[in-house]
């Protein structure tokens, strides 16, 4: 009998993260949905069903990533880690405050680094898969989103480097670049919703 496998999806309280969690559950994984909004993660896990559960998770805190990986591993072999949590703050390149730029980098860059470290350590010799959610903004930058665009461009380069480094360990690393979807970030990404 195959050992049960688990998957972690960060930023899974809504939008793309929730849909990824839903599809991983359908594929047979027990899914741990995490979000900085713990209530949203709990509601999303109930919606996913199939043994999914939730945890409040601020991706800016490296120690919490390790706790999340341990929770997932306690429920079965950690097979999939999805770095989905992200933040978008609109504004031209010169109007962002240092605090806003730090928030973008802390969540979209440092959160991916810490999450990936925790995932690889928990996967161990069994290997697994890491999926990074980048953006079309990384390859076709959107106006007034420079630091978001740059963080997602970093993610594509980091994914390629991680894929080469982790292949011998049996860990596959990929990134996807979603186009605008019906998520809470749509208005910020598009400027405003339109028919």
Averaged pLDDT = 92
Query: Main β-sheet, in a few words?
Result: 6 strands, parallel
**How many strand units?**
6
Distance between the termini: 50 Å
Strand order of the largest sheet: 3-2-1-4-5-6
Unreliable runs, pLDDT <50, ≥5 residues? none
Proportion of residues in extended strands: 15-25%
Helices and strands: which structural class?
alpha/beta
Radius of gyration: 16 Å
- How would you describe the oligomerization state of the chains in this entry? single chain
Helical element count? 6
Q: Could you write a compact summary of the structure shown?
A:
This protein is 45% helix and 17% strand. The chain has six helices and six strands; from the N terminus they run βαβαβαβαβαβα.
Walkthrough of the structure:
It contains six helices and six strands. It has helices at 15-26, 38-48, 62-74, 98-123, 146-166, 186-190; strands at 5-9, 30-35, 53-56, 77-83, 128-133, 171-176. A six-stranded parallel beta sheet has the order 3-2-1-4-5-6, sandwiched between helices. The longest helix is centred in the middle third of the chain and has 26 residues, at 98-123. 41% of the residues are buried.
Features:
single chain; 195 residues; alpha/beta; six-stranded parallel sheet; 6 helices; 6 strands; 17% strand
SSE topology:
Elements: E1 5-9, H1 15-26, E2 30-35, H2 38-48, E3 53-56, H3 62-74, E4 77-83, H4 98-123, E5 128-133, H5 146-166, E6 171-176, H6 186-190
Parallel strand pairs: 1-2, 1-4, 2-3, 4-5, 5-6
């Amino acid at each position: 009998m195959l050992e049960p496998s688990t998957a972690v999806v960060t930023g899974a309280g809504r939008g793309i993260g929730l849909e990824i969690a839903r599809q991983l559950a359908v594929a047979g994984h027990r899914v741990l949905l995490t979000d900085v909004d713990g209530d949203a993660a709990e509601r999303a896990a109930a919606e996913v069903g199939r043994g999914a559960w939730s945890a409040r998770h601020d991706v800016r805190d490296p120690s919490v990533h390790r706790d999340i990986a341990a929770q997932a591993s306690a429920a079965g072999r950690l097979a999939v880690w999805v770095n989905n949590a992200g933040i978008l703050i609109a504004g031209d390149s010169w109007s962002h405050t240092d605090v806003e730029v730090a928030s973008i980098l802390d969540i979209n860059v440092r959160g991916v680094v810490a999450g990936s470290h925790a995932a690889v350590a928990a996967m161990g010799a069994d290997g697994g898969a890491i999926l990074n959610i980048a953006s079309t903004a990384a390859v076709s930058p959107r106006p007034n989103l420079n630091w978001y665009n740059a963080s997602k461009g970093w993610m594509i380069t980091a994914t390629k480097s991680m894929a080469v480094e982790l292949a011998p360990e049996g860990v596959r690393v990929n990134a996807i670049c979603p186009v605008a979807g019906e998520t809470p970030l749509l208005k910020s990404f598009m400027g405003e919703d339109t028919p």
